[in-house]
Amino acid sequence: MTTPAPPSYAASARGRMSRLNITTQLAVIIPVGTVLVVFDSQVWWEAAVLVLGLLTSVVAIVLWARDEINAHAVPLLATGAAVWVFGALVSGSTTAFYSITVVAPLIVPQMRRHRIPAAAGVVVFVAAAGAARIPLAPASAGSTAFHFVLVPGAVMVVTLAFMFANDAFYRVLDELDEAREHEAELAVARERIRFASELHDIQGHTLHVVKLKTALAGKLVRRDAERAEEELREIHALVGDTIRQTKELAYAQRRLNLAGELENAKNLFEAAGIRVRIVRSAPVAEGELLGQVLRETTTNILRHAQAAQVRITLTESGITIVNDGASGDGPPELRGLSTLRDRLAGFGGELKVKQENGEFTTAATVPAGVAR
Known about the structure:
Elements: H1 9-40, H2 44-65, H3 73-91, H4 98-107, H5 115-131, H6 141-220, H7 225-250, H8 258-271, E1 275-280, H9 288-304, E2 309-314, E3 318-323, H10 335-346, E4 350-356, E5 359-365
Parallel strand pairs: 1-2
Antiparallel strand pairs: 2-3, 3-5, 4-5
């Protein structure tokens, strides 16, 4: 059974806002509309029309809060417009515009296209319908224009402006939700790349060392069985350590130790017949990043170089590894070091590689105070 995905931030916020909108708007719309019906209708049929307008407003608010108003936009707008035309031309109700000024601002801002022309058109319609009343009461043209044109038009403009701002707020919520989703996707992608890189470090390093030691044991098995047996024991221990490190990586518990990597690199180089010189020019802080640089560089030397000697220099702020036996005219493509360069840069550090006169140099530095 599939577990439903949790609601997004914007969706949950929209749900809370929808419930709040229904409660707060109906708490205002219904009492105000009821008062207008009572005081602005003279006969029952006038009251019936105004009640129809009020019910249309209530339905529109509920559908808008549920994001279902677009499917019913035409009948809602037609009803609100009809009530206003009836009030302006038949009953002379100065408040019959109430319904259209509730319904139209709920619909127009949600239109995908031509929202501004539609808003202007609604304002013009309300004002024009009210202006049609003026010829019916020429003796009070000024008062009629005020109550049937100016007031309804101004109310429509204000409510439209408010709902446009409200719609913009919802759009910001949607954009924030989309940004959060993208950020989460990027975080997942970065974590996958990091996991793949560290798994490559562990498995690639081990396989190359096992290959080296197996070849060495094969050469020693007839002339120095005891040494060959020792190499096989080291291979067994190395494989066991790799299994442990893989489990730690899977459970996010893996931590590299620079001192341990330094000892491991020294043993590997010596086993491969490579002379190693370690220089400590200052007290060195333990660090995971520098340990990764040393491990990756050790693997690269064993794979790509025909080195006879390696010099490792440790300083307070970094590590430099220089090996001879570099082949080719330029540095080879080293994907592992490229990944580490990006990780160091994220901490304000730097990783440089250089090949010159048959020597390959890998130098990594990190700012003081950064966990390395």
